[in-house]
UniProtKB/TrEMBL annotation:
Keyword Transport attributed: yes
Pfam family, one: FecCD
Organism domain of life: Bacteria
Subcellular location field: Cell membrane
GO MF entries: transmembrane transporter activity
Gene Ontology process terms (BP): siderophore-iron import into cell
GO cellular component, one term: plasma membrane
Name of the protein described by the UniProt record: Iron complex transport system permease protein
Membrane topology summary: Multi-pass membrane protein
TM stretches of this protein: 26-48, 88-105, 117-139, 145-164, 176-197, 217-241, 269-294, 306-327, 339-358
Family statement drawn from the similarity comment of this UniProt entry: Belongs to the binding-protein-dependent transport system permease family. FecCD subfamily.
Organism classification: Bacteria, Bacillati, Actinomycetota, Actinomycetes, Propionibacteriales
Keywords assigned by UniProt, alphabetized: Cell membrane, Membrane, Transmembrane, Transmembrane helix, Transport
Length: 363
């Protein structure tokens, strides 16, 4: 460590910023290439195996018109373009969205154990989806009824969290945390009541599978485009706000001295995160631990600066969720297991290690 510090000091960079930038660039390029390889592999792996070169040719044919002559069957074309590619792209967007929301929430409430479940948004989306599946709520939206009602439930949950936090005075980290936990439990109870009241065993199974997350609803069309626009927009917004997130993560007093208004920034973050999580959960259900695990991995890779962390976390989350989905649909093929089971199996041991490290640091 001493030799590294001396080398940086002699280089005229006492904070090691140049080395940190190079490290961030290497991670970003490496993860970008890894994401491309992950997408090709994710599309190719399944009950019918498709080579990566064929996947690239099919995608290139549909997007760019090359190669001019098709050398693959119509069945392979349908599997790659109509079934697997939308699913993998949704996994990329959902993983990135959950990861960046976890980054924002951990800065907003200054709690390293925070994740998108904190706001109760997942529970709100689950209640909306349960109402659509069990009682036909939102039938006027036709095939998009599940996504629309889940999204409306997520927005209602985020509004309720804000109103509860605001009712006691200023919107602080602790109040948002407590309000999110309370609203989340209440809406989870509501979802359980809807399942019980419906009396439909088949509907209950559908709701439970959706509660644990699935990318099986992915299709080309408006829902996928909405997820792409929202996740991309929130990622850009959080990157631009990176310095403000740094100040907020240190503390309100420090934020004030740097010209940041903590209460106003928390409200803006709450709206952005609620919108992103609501859209993501409405498209793929409740998927846990991605928003908790990935921000820690990103900070270990490129440091604590949020300008760097947001982009790296988005790439890591995308890669993680695509591979989790590959496992979910191939481990017990042809039966598919909920993707939330895979992410929980990965995330739970990580959480135990994190809690142990926090305990060791505190003592």
């Amino acid at each position: 460590m001493a030799s590294q510090g001396t080398a940086v000091l002699h280089a005229g960079d006492p904070l090691g910023l140049d080395a940190l930038r190079r490290r961030t660039t290497l991670w970003t390029v490496g993860l970008g290439l890894g994401l491309v390889a992950t997408v090709l592999a994710g599309v190719g792996i399944g009950a019918v195996s498709v080579p990566a070169t064929t996947v690239a040719e099919v995608v290139g044919h549909h997007l760019l018109g090359w190669p001019g002559e098709r050398t693959w069957s119509a069945a392979v074309d349908a599997i790659v373009w109509q079934v697997r590619l939308p699913r993998v792209l949704l996994g990329v967007l959902v993983g990135a969205g959950l990861a960046i929301c976890g980054v924002a929430l951990q800065a907003m409430v200054r709690n390293v154990l925070a994740d998108p479940y904190l706001l109760g948004v997942n529970s709100g989306a689950s209640s909306g989806a349960a109402a659509a599946i069990l009682f036909g709520v939102g039938a006027g939206f036709a095939e998009h009824a599940l996504q629309v009602t889940a999204f409306l439930g997520a927005l209602a949950a985020s509004l309720l969290v804000f109103l509860v936090a605001r009712s006691a005075g200023r919107v602080t980290s602790v109040r948002i945390l407590l309000a999110g936990v309370a609203v989340g439990y209440a809406l989870y109870a509501l979802t359980s009541f809807l399942i019980f009241a419906s009396g439909s065993a088949e509907g209950a199974r559908s709701v439970m599978f959706w509660l644990l997350g699935s990318l099986g609803l992915a299709r080309w069309g408006l829902p996928l485009a909405v997820v792409a626009v929202v996740v991309g927009g929130v990622t850009l917004l959080l990157t631009v706000w990176g310095r403000r997130l740094d100040a907020l993560a240190v503390g309100d007093e420090t934020a004030h001295t740097l010209g940041v208004r903590p209460e106003r920034l928390r409200l803006q973050l709450l709206v952005a995160v609620a919108l992103c999580v609501g859209v993501v959960v409405s498209a793929a259900g409740s998927i846990g631990f991605v928003g908790l695990v990935v921000p820690h991995l990103a900070r270990r890779a490129v440091g604590g600066g949020h300008v760097r962390v947001v982009g790296v976390a988005a790439l890591m989350g995308a890669i993680l969720l695509v591979w989790a989905d590959v496992l979910a649909r191939t481990l017990f093929a042809p039966q598919e297991i909920p993707i939330g089971i895979i992410t929980s199996l990965v995330g739970a041991p990580f959480l135990l290690v994190l809690v142990r490290r926090l305990h060791a640091t505190a003592s």
